[in-house]
Write a structure and sequence with these properties.
Blueprint (H helix, E strand, L loop, with lengths): L1 H47 L7 E6 L3 E6 L6 E2 L10 E6 L2 E6 L5 E3 L2 E2 L2 E4 L10 E3 L2 E8 L2 E8 L3 H4 L14 E18 L5 E14 L2 E5 L2 E3 L3 E6 L13 E6 L5 E5 L49
Parallel strand pairs: 2-3
Antiparallel strand pairs: 1-11, 2-4, 4-5, 5-8, 6-7, 6-9, 9-10, 10-11, 12-13, 12-18, 13-14, 15-16, 16-17
Length: 310
Amino acid sequence: MKLAAEVTGAALALALISAMTANTGASGKDSYRDEVAKFRAEREAELKAENGWLSVAGLFWLKEGENRFGADPSNEIVLPEGSAPPQAGVFEFHEGKTTLRVEGGAPVTFNGKPATTLEMKTDEKLLPDVVRLGSLSMIVIKRGERYGIRVKDLNSKRRREFKGMRWFPVKEAYRITARFVAYDKPKDIHIANVLGDVSKMPSPGYAVFTFGGKEYRLEPILEGKDKLFFIFADRTNNKTTYGAGRFLYTALPQDGKVTLDFNRAENPPCAFTQFATCPLPPRQNRLKVAIEAGELNYASPSHPESPDRE
């Protein structure tokens, strides 16, 4: 009887351990899915924010000399109808410098105060001067040798009609631990953008990972001081995902490894506006495999056909 009791007790203990292990596994999966869901919700909120890509309403390249702005179609920089006076002022561009000159008492502000004349900093160091006119904001951007005025509108049609983002279902198989091979010192790689400009950007190394029994490699660039930025293409592009490629951000490598969580892969801004200047995947980052994870192509009101949302 004692032996039988011991066997029964051991069996119960084993069953309890198995149940606890199963629950821990389930809890781990739920925790990961919650993390991805939080990331996706934050991604959508950022896109819909007042300063998000859905608010972009125009991009106008500056010519040497005067570039007049206002709602009248005769201006070089034509603002959305009803958003501004017919003639609101001038962006004077000369040898890489842009000076704002407000005319006719247009209610243009800078840092919350009325603006009359201002030499504007570009976005080269990610801290451009922002001038505001009603629901509009305007900054100077520099791309290659070109300078332009990017206009955002809180009341833009794209922002008003946004229908929500679409994602592949979360699959843990697409959260991949890759080996990271660091260069002796960062190497410049060539990154083209949709305008045809090519820039040299520093890459600290490359990630090597195995998927479906085959080995692949991706080369990132540095994003600030604490992130890697992967610009990649795969065989879902132009089918279920954005045609030109997608983005993936990761933490810096630790102990020679980096986590590539393709469930967090996202569309570039060009998926949402024609006024973005997105970088394109370099040749070495064009994967000959379908990565069926992350953000699906956006179904806008004018392009409603897209796979079902998760």
